[in-house]
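COURSE: Structural Biology Practicum
ASSIGNMENT: Worksheet 4, Part C
STUDENT ID: 0417
INSTRUCTIONS: Below are two proteins. For each, the amino acid sequence is given first, followed by its structure token string. Answer the questions at the end about the second protein only.

PROTEIN I
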Amino acid sequence: MGPMAHRIVLLLFLCAVLKGIESKLTSVQECCEAGREIALREHDCTVLPRFTSHICSIAQEHCCRAFAKKRACNNGIKMARGKQACERPFFTGSSWETQISEACCDCCTLGLKMDSMGFSCDFQDLQLDKQCSNAARVCCEKPKEINPNAKAPEETEVFATRPPEEANTCRELNCSQLCVDNGRCACNDGFQLQRDGATCGDINECLNGSHNCSSEQVCVNTEGSFYCQLSCHPGFILTDNIICKDIDECTLGSHDCGANYVCINTAGSFYCEPKVVCRDGYRRNAAGNCIDIDECVVLVNPCRPGQSCINTVGSYSCRRNTVTCPRGYHPTVDGTRCEDVDECLITNMCGKHICVNLDGSYRCECSAGYRFSNTTEVCE
């Protein structure tokens, strides 16, 4: 095959790959749009039709929740503009939706109050979260009426920066995205107005902490928005099928086992096993060498009572305890101490006379007509 044929094959392969990527992207976008349609009908985003594709189900659920979240916030803004009470019983939807509506209603009330008192509509110093800050700014700047059921754009982010006095029309302002009140530039959600008062720049939600990704997800910034990507625990890697796969450190060579050890892979980790197994009576130290085990220290009562443990190389032995006792005493059964000998039980030391045992000795109490002789130690 010549060079030209190789180029043609390569081009055909690249076209097929790009076509596959485009079809997957279109499929994800369709799944997201399906989630938006469910939210538009005010259905519960937790009860959704199941897709065979896991990534499609994720896109559907989160797009549904994002639309429902913005709609709930817009309901709160509308309630505040109508000068009605910001109480959760007055809002419809699930518990988390009514909570968002109440929060946006309160934040919009803050913006309306700031505007009526003539204060600035810049709420950055208050360190409010993004949703509350946007609601307060929108109500303070008095943009056009919000329609909670509108599909796009659902929310407009307005900044207090004003154009030069001589530019009083949208045509003169040359806004990059939106123009409100016929003399003020504004940005869509996910963008912020730059210092020139006309250009909108992307907000990196991943850097400023305004994203809602969980601890098991990684925030990935996009133009005007962001998305949460599943993050795997240490020892695992995320595959193209959105599955956390175990990393085989032993195969990759990323383990730290020494030369005398074998790497054994486990789920999410590994461990090192000695190449040579030590004989009985030995154990392997940190350097991988076999050393003697002191059984007299490691084992509990390795020898029987009356015996002492003696450690040997690779084993141990038991030796009977022995003590030297004086006259009138003998070693105990365990051989650890001496005890008195009861001579009166051993032999008939006193004959027909009475034998009295003493500590280490004995005494004969003679019958009438006899006396004890210290010399012969008998009754005479």
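PROTEIN II
(use this one for the questions)
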Amino acid sequence: TPWVLIEKQQSPHLIRMYRLLLCCVSVVLWMGRVSGLENGLARTPPMGWLAWERFRCNTDCVNDPHNCISESLFMQHADIIVNEGYRDLGYDMVSLDDCWLARERDNRGRLQPDPHRFPSGIKALADYMHNRGLKFGIYEDYGNYTCAGYPGILGHLETDARTFGEWEVDYVKLDGCYSHPADMDRGYPEMGYFLNKTGRQMVYSCSWPFYQLYSGMEPNWTSIIESCNLWRNFDDIQDSWESVQRIIDYYGDNQDAIVPHAGPGHWNDPDMLIIGNFGLSYEQSKSQMAMWAIFAAPLLMSVDLRTIRPEYKAILQNAAVIAVNQDPLGIQGKRIYKDKGIEIWARPVTPLVQGFYSYAIAFLNRRTDGTPSEVSVTLRELGLGHPGGYVITDLFDGVQYGTVLPDKRFKVDVNPSGVVIVRCEIVKAVFEPGLSPFRPAQQQQFGFPFGNAINNGPQNFGQQHRFL
């Protein structure tokens, strides 16, 4: 019954009761929407394989059956991920991207795959992944169409969420083409609400902030964090070192605004790993892997795993670098020094001892002058002041530096457009007279790892150490 009729027909007492009831219902509905997914997923950055950067929108299965977007392509990659050890290292998801759809919805208004390229259907493809211990991801768009012109979800949010649940999807990537950025503040949380309503846990990847930032809007980060497990905030990655560098620069230049949003269950997504494709050298590939580990970024490979060369496969399967990326603290790293083509990035990681963090440190060489650059530094200059020192290990070469005290200098040689990433693990607790074991003098703010001397690295560091 319309509210106006209730007011005309009922007593003032009943009107007050109706109004109170309406208010309570509204509050419950509002809380249900703003509470976000609350799905308990992605406690560490998601890992897996996506088709887009490598295979794009190749739908020509007549002339190029080996590389077209088809169920065969995804099944082949699922088998490789299982049989060649990727899954056991954490790459446990295989996801569709754009161009899997038919051009029209079915006669019930539901999404459907292209019948020629996915003859078994999406549920069968999901079952194929699940039977191999993998998760299954899907792509859609909060718009009238996907970026490639296939049906979008506008006008069908609840239907599509329910369809994904029935197909047993584990991961939903929602793009933002053919939609207005101002509508996304309502639409993305609404889709998250409907995904949650299905009762199936699905990781929710959003392109929401990227489209708003690109249009000049300031995203509602509180709502984004509450609604999404990961989100894009910069341009699509392309198969080039220039593209990777632009992303690194964006994350460094805007780190004070970006880093606070990341943590268990909600991650900044700098886009896919392009390691093993055509645009990166061996050194540059190590640089992308190391930087994505420092960023606490999703590790989403987009490469033909059927033909990847062994040295690039080894980079993707480097368990020590993956461990940095998957560190349970979930703290995104920061750039703490930048000068003359040399950058130093730091990320707090486990183990912790009496409030001191261990750290992963990346020395990134942006120079192209043809010879390695020697970097000489002490840990104290980086803000690492634990009295007992740190055990330092090079994560790509496996070089052991042994136990290094805060004031002892050590050196690394960094190849042009390359990286050296080391893990600095605290050795043991060392107590000084009068020093509380829970609040060491060098690092008072346990919850804010960049609140110690490391936060002032760019200012103080350059005055104390030299590059050769």
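ANSWER KEY EXCERPT:
Q1: The chain has 15 helices and 16 strands.
Q2: The two ends are 80 Å apart (CA to CA).
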